[in-house]
Structures are given as C-alpha cells and as structure tokens.
Amino acid sequence: MKNNSETSAKSLKREEMVKFAFDTFYKNGFHATGVDTVMEGTGISKRTLYKHFGSKEGLILATIDYYRTNMHEIILRYINSDPNAKPVDKMLRIFDFLIERAEEGPFNGCFVMNAKTEYTNKGNEIEASCDAYTSGIQTLIDVALKEANLPNHNELVVQIMMLFEGAIIRSKVTRSGDTMKMAKNAARMLCEYK
C-alpha cells in the first residue's frame, strides 16, 4: 500500500513535468519540442513520462488543462477586481488583461490558440480541449453582457470574442499591446451601438 508521502511525491513530480512542458511548449511550440527536451529538463525517464501521460499528446493535453484551469481563475479574478464596475466595463477588462500581459514582456500569444493552430485536423482531443478553453472565455464575456441587458446579446458575444482572438493573433506579429487597445475600443463601440 502506498503511503501519502509517496503519492504526494508522484503528484509533485507530475506537476513539475507539466509546468516544465508548459513553459517549453509555450516558448518553442508543440511540434518543435520533443519528448527528449522535456525529459532532459525534468530529469525523468521516457518510461516515467509515458507512465504519467501515455504519449506526447497526453502531455500536451495536461499542459492545456493546466493553462485552462489557471488562466480561467486569473482572468475571472481580474475582470471582477472592481466590484463597482458596470457589466460592460467588467467585460472590457478582459482586454486590459491582455494589454498588461503583452506589455510585461515577451508575448507568445495564447497557449491554447497556439496549440489549436498546430493541431488543427491532427489531434481531435487536443482540439476539443482547446475549444473547451475558448468556450470558457466566451462564457465570461457572455455572463458580463447578459448583466448589461444589451439587445442582440448572442451576436455581440461572438463579435467580441472575434475581437479578443484577433487581437491576440495580431499582437504576436506587432509585439505590442496597441492591437489589444484597438480591439477594446472596437468592443466598447459595439456595446454602445447596440
């Protein structure tokens, strides 16, 4: 029978592998990063890696889940940080979040959007996991806009999500938060127009 400290140590090692793989995939890309790189960085054997994740795709799924869980909580806290904000202003804070991240330093885009791009038509589970993350972001926007009671609410949610995703992609090219600021202004105008 395994004791709690042994189980905890295995869980910690798995978490360490996920965090290292996340950082490496985010910096170098998914196809450009081999399993050997993750093994070298964490000091684990290929057998241990496959025991925990089954395959490289299993490891990628674990990193997407790690990103989705952490990012959802961070964004939710961020957009709700001002309890007096009006619903539209709360929703617009999602763009402020992006602007701050872009201006902090090297911006590699959205981890999940990067995975989706590299695995389109190549990995159904990876695509589905990416779609779940995107759906979560869209739900955050949806909740804020429902509170605002704007007409054509569903259409507006999709339009703002397009601005959000487009700003992320464009900012990878420009290496600047300016694109995100323009997307925020466009989102504000859409809400005022409705």
From TrEMBL:
Gene3D superfamilies listed in its UniProt record: Tetracycline Repressor, domain 2
Residues within the DNA-binding region(s): 34-53
Keyword Metal-binding found: no
Domain HTH tetR-type: start-end pairs: 11-71
Entry keyword set: DNA-binding, Transcription, Transcription regulation
Keyword Ligase: no
Name of a matching Pfam family: TetR_N
PROSITE patterns: HTH_TETR_2 (PS50977)
GO MF annotation terms: DNA binding
Protein name: TetR/AcrR family transcriptional regulator
Organism: Flavobacterium cupreum
Lineage per the UniProt record: Bacteria, Pseudomonadati, Bacteroidota, Flavobacteriia, Flavobacteriales
